[in-house]
């Protein structure tokens, strides 16, 4: 029977194909895209320098105005942003994406921009109540902590099971924290939220997801490379 370390490597191994990071710097309005985000937009890695104009040019015409307004507010107020919209890559293929972001600070703690990631959720564009039911089933029937965390991401971000796992795996790799440890931290963070009838804002969940690794006890919980 494989040991825990072997199982961890099997689950977390390989590069996630549906998730990639971005950064935006307020001072010079400069964008950075990971290789995955470049590929998502239809570019070979290293062949494109993203700008706000380029970012907007790839938005679906029906979504462009709303995204432009969101980006304009981000530049004016220096707030983070999270959206679900469609992009069109260089081949004309439409992708539905979820964009999640948090504050980007320098070593002195000064706010310098925003950073986050794109999740390609194209297969779930026609999501219905049946998928929400499936997400709840993931939580109640599977007691493994990774399955529970995956189920929570499915509900919060309206992802299918594969995209939710890719997102969790990507955060594990980016933060160099074991998949199970990261899942446990996320579940503890979500359980600690205080709210009444309405769920907390998406901004709250985005921040917890992007900073969970900072609240992990590091001894023995990093991933072997």
From TrEMBL:
<dbReference type="InterPro" id="IPR000014">
    <property type="entry name" value="PAS"/>
</dbReference>
<dbReference type="Pfam" id="PF03861">
    <property type="entry name" value="ANTAR"/>
</dbReference>
<dbReference type="InterPro" id="IPR011006">
    <property type="entry name" value="CheY-like_superfamily"/>
</dbReference>
<dbReference type="InterPro" id="IPR036388">
    <property type="entry name" value="WH-like_DNA-bd_sf"/>
</dbReference>
<dbReference type="InterPro" id="IPR013655">
    <property type="entry name" value="PAS_fold_3"/>
</dbReference>
<feature type="domain" description="ANTAR">
    <location>
        <begin position="126"/>
        <end position="187"/>
    </location>
</feature>
<dbReference type="InterPro" id="IPR005561">
    <property type="entry name" value="ANTAR"/>
</dbReference>
<dbReference type="InterPro" id="IPR035965">
    <property type="entry name" value="PAS-like_dom_sf"/>
</dbReference>
<protein>
    <submittedName>
        <fullName>PAS and ANTAR domain-containing protein</fullName>
    </submittedName>
</protein>
<dbReference type="GO" id="GO:0003723">
    <property type="term" value="F:RNA binding"/>
</dbReference>
<dbReference type="Pfam" id="PF08447">
    <property type="entry name" value="PAS_3"/>
</dbReference>
